[in-house]
Input
Amino acid sequence: MTFADTARLDDPKDEATAFAADRPLTLDSGATLDGLRLAYKTYGTLNAARSNAILICHALSLDQYVASSHPVSGRPAWWRTMVGPGLPMDPARHFIICSNVVGGCMGSTGPSSINPATGRPWGLAFPVITIADMVRAQAMLVQSLGIDKLFAVVGGSMGGMQVLQWASDYPEMLFSAVCIAAAPRHSAQNIAFHEVGRQAIMADPDWRGGDYANEGVRPEKGLAVARMAAHITYLSEPALHRKFGRELQSDGLSWGFDADFQVESYLRHQGASFVDRFDANSYLYITRAMDYFDLAANHGGVLADAFRAARDVRFCVFSFTSDWLYPTVESRSVVRALNAAGSRASFVEIDSDKGHDAFLLDEPVLRSALGGFMSSAAQIRGLP
Amino acid sequence: MTFADTARLDDPKDEATAFAADRPLTLDSGATLDGLRLAYKTYGTLNAARSNAILICHALSLDQYVASSHPVSGRPAWWRTMVGPGLPMDPARHFIICSNVVGGCMGSTGPSSINPATGRPWGLAFPVITIADMVRAQAMLVQSLGIDKLFAVVGGSMGGMQVLQWASDYPEMLFSAVCIAAAPRHSAQNIAFHEVGRQAIMADPDWRGGDYANEGVRPEKGLAVARMAAHITYLSEPALHRKFGRELQSDGLSWGFDADFQVESYLRHQGASFVDRFDANSYLYITRAMDYFDLAANHGGVLADAFRAARDVRFCVFSFTSDWLYPTVESRSVVRALNAAGSRASFVEIDSDKGHDAFLLDEPVLRSALGGFMSSAAQIRGLP
Output
């Protein structure tokens, strides 16, 4: 099964709903994007007061399939530990929306979409997008659904960056906001890891200067290497040690370059399975958007000023002790800025040795703390 | 200037001396290597008692040019902060030896050498080698120089692994041993990063299944990506932040995929310059040797048992607080094992935010502590 066969919006196997914008999307770069489409999924029912909507923002390598299985890979719902019956985000109580980001490859407009000017895939002619552009597109979607104020916007990792951008750009549309394992800007080390991934993709001769879709090939090897490098950063050293240690695949060393160690085989699998469900150019564009992210930069370097208008939004910020990609110190800087801006912010640092990916895993403390925050917010909002 | 033009032993521009073994090298894999040659450099003069020799073991990407400039890249001596007049290792007092490891590409027998069986470069037909194989070859070189006991064996990173292996396999040939920023085995995370690098090389179509030297090409892009990924692990996040932060190359964002951030440009340069002086297959073989390294494994999992015969060797072990590649906990496990084996071990954890590469940089505390250790050992050894 190849990506091109199954992943586009017009494929009947893809059950995503599509939002078609009635006006161009203005981008931070100064460009405008005509014919914006966002593929999204919803779960639950919008109440009569339109006050129970939750927007979930997804991370770099994820998509709108937050609570249902992935149509290409068959992967189970990516946030099944947090979204579902009896969980903090519950379709029985909430109207849950999750859209594929602009620049993505699961049905939303991105570099593998058709460029109306040429009738062929955009490739590198697609404009560079930012986290703010992703959020601007999401706001159009939310408004099109008749929702003036979201009960909550929630996201981890790049999703958490979008949450912070929402609070900065559309505070009047938020009742509460949950930012998990994220940062208010990308660090030099974050940028460095992304640059390795981009160079791996661009080094693949099948990338063809970004024009691979027009030439019927795909830079699978480069994208797999990019994913492998990134994947290491999602796990902690203790988690890797506990999971794999120096365990071998078979009885002895191969004395060659096959995957001797289980961790090698695991990484190769991560790389190989990623290329079935992700597009290399989308990887370039989305990592670029993350690298460009620096919320304070548009406010004279003062992060608190980004949150000045968000005083009435209830915030909850989470970090994990073993997350070295977006360490606790980054979340603390967000909380400090929220406090300085006069916002109500809860902060929970969760003791976990699972690394950055902890937000996607079965972390009972995250579930109960997030559940508590959502229940308390629901009470104030008058939701059941 | 290309690698093939300048870096081989028979090139007149390479001033390295060569040791040609008079017997085959028996390898851990069970294979034997005929016609072993080790390229090496010496500095200073062996005294009449042959008691002032120091063997320096180099790290993955380095070579024998410990105290003189690199003949291919022109890079200054790689350990000019530690080897030289008035420094802890001083050619006026010591006879300093540094040899390119077996498997390397700066003149020692490795995968780019000529396979005597075919008359063409070995490529992947070269046998997989280990840290112990590197040390076994070094011991032959040291013996050939008429040295029964080294005053010291010294190394950082992979060089430190060789030091530990020396203490395990040839303790009677050592008076003292200095292990800097190393570990007694490769962790799952260490292996994972190396595997990313190997996959990047092997994904490059110019790698040609390892046979590129016979086909007149070189997998430069893959090797550059491997180097970029590895280089991030050599630096700490604070060092990257201090050095680059989010500083741009020019006045504004490019809104494209050029190197916008200084850290991107720095990494690209690291990748591009590495391919001028290193061979891709050597990178595969040497990283494999490091991944296979697990000193306790041959001693029933008890690290102390590797050092039982090294009771008379004076050890000094160094780590750096911000080294996340070989963190202090690894050095501590070495010191604990040395203590359990009844050896004299000093341990110095140096407070530095420069990461793993601190051992190569101007670290005054390392210099003074190493200088003190060497002076004290010299006194006991009866050296000036």
